[in-house]
Amino acid sequence: KVVVLDFGAQYGQLIARRVRDLSVYSEIVPCDVSADELRRLNPSAVILSGGPASVYAEDAPKIDPDVLNLGVPVLGFCYGQQIMAVTLGGTVGHTEKGEYGAAQIVREGDSSLLGGTPDEQTVWMSHRDAVSEVPEGFVVTSRTETCPVASMECAERNLYATQFHPEVRHTPHGNDMLKNFLFKICGLEANWNMDSIIEESVTAIREKVGGDRVILGLSGGVDSSVVAALCARAIGKQLTCVFVNHGLLRKNEPEEVEEVFTRQFDVDFVHVHAEERYAELLAGVTDPEQKRKIIGSQFWNEFFSVAQDLDGVKFLAQGTIYPDIIESGARKTGGKASTIKSHHNLIPFPDGVHFDLIEPLDRFFKDEVRALGTALGLPDHIVHRQPFPGPGLAIRIIGAVDPEKLEILKNADAIVREELDAYNARLFEETGERNGEHSVWQYFAVLPDVKSVGVMGDERTYARPVILRAVESSDAMTADWAKLPYDVLARISGRIVAEVPGVNRVAYDITSKPPATIEWE
Ligand code: XMP
């Protein structure tokens, strides 16, 4: 495996992704890992990521110098090159102008890392500091007009580094450099693929679980569904999937989840009909955070009341994925990625109840989880499901939730999804990109707590508006409203008003995030 030392939030993740895309397993550790800890991970190669700091800043992250003496090849990018240079006795200084964006490198002499790539090529730079003198034993392998050491290497010790970022797409030959490193320099094999991942995961689950029983809270979302499918492959009926139906899912969703996990997978499936209990708890509640709290805590009440009635449950399976682990670690260590799992403490086990956790997805990024789901036979509507909030439609009904409003919202939302699913499918066909630049990332209907006057036939109406929300985003942190074609908007509006009783208007939310959020509550 390749271990990436992360010198700053997010930099390491992208590198690990690129390595995995080349079918080599890669994981991320904080940059202050000791050489001994690193040796225990038994890496075949180490990559030092970029990072936002200056090597001479007071709190600049350092590395244990022995990391460079493990006897495995090391590759550093950007800050990674600078820290390698400084640690080994080279010098880093300010360049005159700094370099941000595309730059031209010119190669010098032979280089195993750059081998097979053009003598002059475009790379992506983002730095002010740069190596000015390479450490003893190193040679400069490329430069730019501004940057005297755009890359350097010491083939004898298997140490390589670039000031530019081969991991970003804006360095067109970056992937070739990474391939040179992994396959030529480190001699690794490209064997991290779906078949081997499934096989390894299934073996690991079987070994851990033995003859015991596993319970899983299945929400119908991507992560919990993939865990269920994976455990089903590994242990079949030893898995109990508890599906707590709070009545706040989208139209037909509970039926679809039940269908998949009773027909397609051979697991023990428990459908908890908690719709009425949730309705009672939510009656009259208008505050969004209060709704979230009630829905979240009732989930665990429902879940544990099933769990406690089952005999011999030793494990609770969870759909924790790799970014959750990296993030919760990052919070604990003040910004740097780490493998501490703080979110474990969040499960409110009742007194006297305890299950060991299994988290079969804790090494995977989201799109790997999706690929795994597809390989395990889950249908597209689950694997490519949009993000959907745990509290469900309760936070898309502004004000108190009641059965009438729920019915209106479910029907309006079903139309929005049908029309925009079709629109996205057309874009997918045209561009071949599922989450392409113009495809709509998340879309749904919101029901505000107002009524307005309208006219239908010859009758005055006094009914509800529905708000359409459709956004483009890649990570939900920021989002822009989707510039939907007028004919698509017209169709959605026409259908909702005609087909959903109680609605006489449709409005489109044209606000980005920030300043708004994606959801209305
Ligand atoms: P906002 O509204 O904060 O949403 O822009 C960002 C993303 O998170 C989803 N979301 C939630 N997911 N529980 C969840 O599991 C929640 O309470 C929740 N609130 C928002 C939202 O759908 C969007 O994708």
Automatic annotation (TrEMBL):
A matching Pfam family: GMP_synt_C
EC number: 6.3.5.2
PROSITE patterns: GATASE_TYPE_1 (PS51273), GMPS_ATP_PPASE (PS51553)
Keyword set includes DNA-binding: no
Active-site residues, record numbering mapped to chain: C78, H165, E167
GO cellular component, one term: cytosol
Domain GMPS ATP-PPase: 192-385
Chemical reaction(s) catalysed: XMP + L-glutamine + ATP + H2O = GMP + L-glutamate + AMP + diphosphate + 2 H(+)
Domain of life of the organism encoding this protein: Bacteria
Pathway of action: Purine metabolism; GMP biosynthesis; GMP from XMP (L-Gln route): step 1/1
Swiss-Prot/TrEMBL keywords: ATP-binding, Glutamine amidotransferase, GMP biosynthesis, Ligase, Nucleotide-binding, Purine biosynthesis
GO molecular function terms listed in the Swiss-Prot or TrEMBL record: ATP binding; GMP synthase activity
UniProt entry tagged with the keyword Hydrolase: no
Function according to Swiss-Prot or TrEMBL: Catalyzes the synthesis of GMP from XMP.
Family annotation (PANTHER family): GMP SYNTHASE [GLUTAMINE-HYDROLYZING], GMP SYNTHASE-RELATED
Subunit: Homodimer.
HAMAP family with a match to the protein in the record: GMP_synthase
Record-given protein name: GMP synthase [glutamine-hydrolyzing]
Species of the source: Berryella intestinalis
Organism lineage string: Bacteria, Bacillati, Actinomycetota, Coriobacteriia, Eggerthellales
Gene: guaA
